[in-house]
Amino acid sequence: MSTKAVLKRLAAFLWLFRGSLIVSFLCAAFSVLVNVAAPLFIGSIIDRISAGTDVASLLGDIGVLVLMYLLYSLLNWGMMAASNRIAFSSSSVLRRQLYAKLEQLPTAFYDQNARGDLISRFINDIDFISDGFLQSLSTMLSGIATIVLTLVFMLQINLIMTLIVVISAPFTYLVARIITVRTNRYFNEQANVLGKLNGFSEEMLTGIRTVKAFGFEQDAQQQFEAYDQQLYGAGVKAQFYGSLANPSTRFVMNSAYALVGAIGALSAFYGSITIGNISTFLMYSNLFSKPFTEITGVMTQLQSALSSGKRIFAIMDLPVQSEDVSMPDLQIREGAVSFDYVSFSYDAKKPLMRDLSLEVPAGSKVAIVGRTGAGKTTLVNLLMRFYDVDGGCIRIDGQRIDEVKRDSLRAQFGMVLQDTYLFEGTIAENIAYGKPQADRAEIIAAAKKSGAHEFIIRLNQGYDTRLHANSNILSQGQRQLLSITRVLLMNPHILILDEATSSIDTVSEQHVNQAMELLMEGKTSFIIAHRLSTIVDADQILVMEQGTVIEQGTHAELLAQNGAYTQLFNSQFAT
User: Fold this and answer.
1) SS3 assignment, position 157
2) Whose CA is closest to 330, among 403, 382, 385?
3) Range 79-96 burial, b when 16+ CB lie within 10 A, else e
4) Cβ neighbours of 533 (radius 10 Å)
5) Domain edges within the chain
6) Which segments constitute the ABC transporter domain (predicted)?
7) Model confidence at 462, in pLDDT bands (50, 70, 90)?
8) CATH architecture of structural domain 337-573
9) Angle, nearest 10°, between helix axes 245-269 and 217-243?
């Protein structure tokens, strides 16, 4: 996306807050009017002093001048308040829009983008837009108004001196333009490297135990320092070249200021201008040049804002998942699942599944086994439409899952993953995550079934104990029990279990297995199994390899075939 297109979109977004924008503009206009009128008043006072005006009259004029500058300060405060309101309101709206967009993106997007980089766009990039684009609004508004009004008043005083001041303005802009164009790529590089650094930091902090366990601290430190050095290099270049704009433009304007002063002195010597008018004009010359230096200084921030805007709009313009609002809800009667000639690949050049067909009767317990990368998790991802199939279709009770609403489809599933995740909130809130309307009695009943009730009541605040995403007050086994309790409370039609008891001790596992048996009774259940001893009683076992079901049957039937399943089974129990 071009810089011009980003600027146009940011301006259009800004117009959403036109109420505050108009207030800011009016305050800017009137504050500038007062600020520009003040030099005329000062020049008049100087001329009256030269003419020998009495002190009492001068004190009255000075009092009026103080009131004028007080009014200017109040109007300037109003302009800043309105501009800040726009800045913070727009940041809030933009973050909400970005979050809503991220929720609409397919799962593949998150597989291809680092979480830390996405967080950086949420926080850093939107702040850069606020600081660089929106906060500079007040400077640009007052600057444009000041330039126009001072030009009008300068023309009334002296044409030649006005031409000198005006002619210097294009040179000021040209110098600033050359510098800012050259610095644009450095600000783009700075924004991208900052996203990479945040992504790496988030990854390392999330997996800090793994980092320590494998003695990777020094390598991680070196990688972090490499990213940090890249950020330092890009940031220094961006800020250095950007900072050249202000002193360069000041040099041009100060040269013009000195020339105007010299011409004014000569004109006064020949009596064609008063001392008061010279003072007024020099003040106008300074007022006229000041917006140019301020605006060119703001352009450095603006470059950073435009770079961040590109990163934000890059996500906002991504295609979302197809709309399914007009589709019907999934209506489950029994829970039979069928895969009809399903084909799928994460990469078009590397097909994973080809013409996979599978029939899962309602209420059956199906185990999926195979080596790492065989396609076990992919099969489940397709079933829940985290990914859509490339060919064929999947049906539940005869209904194509791509012809029903995703929300209604996923509401029928209960998932217990090997890696648990607890959210910010109380234990009760975490258990009720899939059923927010559940009352405390239902929550406790589910916890008793899973065996979680015993350790929950031993906590200081019981079910009201607050947890964090990475809370350490619970063991991995206890966290898994809470995850299972969630599903028990939901009581879904179809279950997906990814080695649900892998992190639980033997005593707890007995309670969980009893609860799971109750839960799976009469429900279609898919079990991704790593420990084959846990699925010997499954109604059906699918052995997968390279996205294809190569063997299918009960535990006894597969052992009798003496094939791939037998090899897997024997490898786990070999002595």
Assistant:
1) helix
2) 403
3) bbebbbbbbeebbeebbe
4) 9
5) 3-316, 337-573
6) 337-571
7) very high
8) 3-Layer(aba) Sandwich (3.40)
9) 20
- Are 443 and 428 in contact by the 8 Å Cβ rule? The answer is yes
Quote the distance between the C-alpha of residue 498 and its chain's center: 30
Q: What percent of the chain has pLDDT over 90?
A: 10
Q: Which fold has domain 3-316?
A: ABC transporter transmembrane region fold (1.20.1560)
Where residue 218 falls among pLDDT bands split at 50, 70, 90? confident
pLDDT in tens, 331-346: 888 889 999 999 998 8
With beta carbons less than 8 A apart as the criterion, state whether 434 and 502 touch: no
The Cα 199–Cα 118 span in angstroms is 8
Pick from 137, 124, 130, 148: which is nearest to 27 by CA? 137
Cα dist from 192 to 231, 312, 504, whole Å: 9, 12, 42
- Note the pLDDT of residue 399: 92
DSSP string over 392-417: EEEEETTEEGGGS-HHHHHTTEEEE-
Q: How many CA atoms lie within 13 A of 316 on its CB side?
A: 19
At 166, list the tokens.
Answer: 């005006």
What's the whole-number mean pLDDT along residues 176-189?
71
Please provide the size of the chain in residues.
Answer: 575
Does the structure show a pLDDT above 80 at 100? yes
